[in-house]
Amino acid sequence: MTILRSLYAVTLGTAALFAQTAAPSWSPAQQKGFDFLLGHQKDGVFAVKMGERSFPDPGFTGLALAALQSKPLAARSEADKKVIEQGLTWLLGQQNEDGSFGQRVQNYTTCAAVMALARWQDERTKPVLQKAQKYILAIQHCETNGSSPADVEYGGIGYGSKGERSDLSNVQFALQALRDTGLPANDDAFRRAVVFLQRTQNLPGTNDLGGKLKVKAEGSEPATFAVGKDGGAVYYPGESPAGAIDLPDGTRVPRSYGSMTYALLKCYLLCGLPGDDPRVKAAVQWIGANWTLVENPGADPKLGEKTRFQGLFYYYLLLAQALDASKVDKIATQKDGKPAEVEWRKDLRACLEASQLPNGAWLNDKNGRWYENLDILCTCYAMLALGHCN
What we know:
The chain is mainly alpha-helical. It contains 13 helices and eight strands.
């Protein structure tokens, strides 16, 4: 089925929206990535290096353990199981009193921990996941934190402190974690999140911030924000690392780009929007018009060749999560000016297998922005994406 037809049939009643529903296969490339990650842990814990120092990190550990758990339980050796359980047990003990994990970028870190712990069938995870859920709810911009729907931040979530600026990347991690901890899609937190989400979308009629913000652009004075019409999404209302489009009337449109448009589609589904909702359909149409696995699409060519590859492996992860959640097998797009359909799972699997390094890792060697100069991070993203390609 094409993406639009399939979206109409999506059922969104379960908390495990992004769980695999069929027994997955396990490829040699995945095993090589698995072995690479195993070679960079100690007793199931992954460390971060800062200068000469190296210290255990719950964020990297959570992400890596989630990637390791993409290997089917039946295919894991006893040694595999021991490492994963050691890491998950360590992670259980890393929760702060307020329910968060880590000491910096706590929303990301907490959501990474939730990603790993929610996949583990162990009774000890239940109170930990519920505390994490309460923490994430507490940092959402909402009435209890003094925010109202008129505020740009309303419904959003930032890096981890109350009152902190939100962005779509933080929001998509948070909404995923809320669903993974069992929060239903009809909770008010998701209703509030939709307000923020539609303000990141270039879609007239639902994005109500036109004329109310200033948009920056390198080498130019800030200009009045205009809402674009392509249906794609940006990082933050009025802000896009993909650049901007200056209109003849002097206003400026932040450019939609790939990873955030897939994040938007994923979030709309997590919030329970149906496939025939105009906001969902507009995001889907952008995806079909900009389908590619070569780059993270949408960047302004004036920003240089390197910009096309920023966040490439994060893009692959969000693409796989969003399309798998949409229950679609093929993307309706254009090839040589003619309508065409692509089997996204097959193509993404081939793309990732072709870019894997001899040691089993993946690395963004074209743009290391957003920590994609770290092979462990890119490998986690690739492994998690491949888990949706079976």
